[in-house]
Amino acid sequence: MANYTFGSKSGNLGNGVLTQNDHEAIKTDYDAHGMRRTVEALLITHLHGHPHVLILKTAASTRFQFPGGVLKPGESEQQGLKRILDALFHAEADADAESVAQESMTWTVGECVSNWWRPNFDANMYPYLPPHVSDPKEHRKLYLVSLPEKLEFTVPNGQELVAIPLFDLYQHKSKFGNQIAAVPYYLSGNDFVYND
């Protein structure tokens, strides 16, 4: 964590809770492009001898969410996630840029560690596609993203980037939600090697 610095910039990501407008946006996207494709980043760092997960927290509430967003039609998951992370954390990045800028941050998008499905136009998401659902409304993928050796995060106003110890996520879905609380399960098959 000592290699990273944190600043702020204008902009707001909301509070992570689906509002009526969000439901309408999902419906509108679905009507125009079909199933919404969302990608998110699992960012892990080392602090006090233990792995920590970097999660966005809404400053005015206790809502947590992974950094990520909606892919553009035809955009690859890896390039889209790089574009979204640049827009979130790079002071000069534009969220609507067609491609990742040459001077953008260096993100290494690794394996997909989880899939979540939204069967209907509501808040419920599942870590599997229910067998009776043939037309899901959203598919959300969580990718393990390696951080560069040094990085300056510029976080949108109204948000905080917090480092949560991996052990604090385990069995705390009432605080973090199902998707974030499941991170220890996703990572249980991995060994962590830290570079000095």
Automatic annotation (TrEMBL):
Domain Nudix hydrolase: where?
34-168
Q: Work out whether the entry's keyword set contains Lipid biosynthesis.
A: no
Domain of life where this protein originates: Eukaryota
For this UniProt record, give its keywords in alphabetical order, as a comma-separated list. Answer: Cytoplasm, mRNA processing, Nucleus, RNA-binding
Membrane spanning segments where? none
As for subcellular location, the record says: Nucleus; Cytoplasm
The processes (GO biological process) annotated in the record are: mRNA 3'-end processing
A GO molecular-function descriptor: mRNA binding
Q: Which GO terms describe its cellular component?
A: cytoplasm; mRNA cleavage factor complex
Entry's family note: Belongs to the Nudix hydrolase family. CPSF5 subfamily.
Description of how the protein assembles with itself and partners: Homodimer (via N- and C-terminus); binds RNA as homodimer. Component of the cleavage factor Im (CFIm) complex.
What does the protein in this record do?
Component of the cleavage factor Im (CFIm) complex that functions as an activator of the pre-mRNA 3'-end cleavage and polyadenylation processing required for the maturation of pre-mRNA into functional mRNAs. CFIm contributes to the recruitment of multiprotein complexes on specific sequences on the pre-mRNA 3'-end, so called cleavage and polyadenylation signals (pA signals). Most pre-mRNAs contain multiple pA signals, resulting in alternative cleavage and polyadenylation (APA) producing mRNAs with variable 3'-end formation.
Protein name per Swiss-Prot or TrEMBL: Cleavage and polyadenylation specificity factor subunit 5
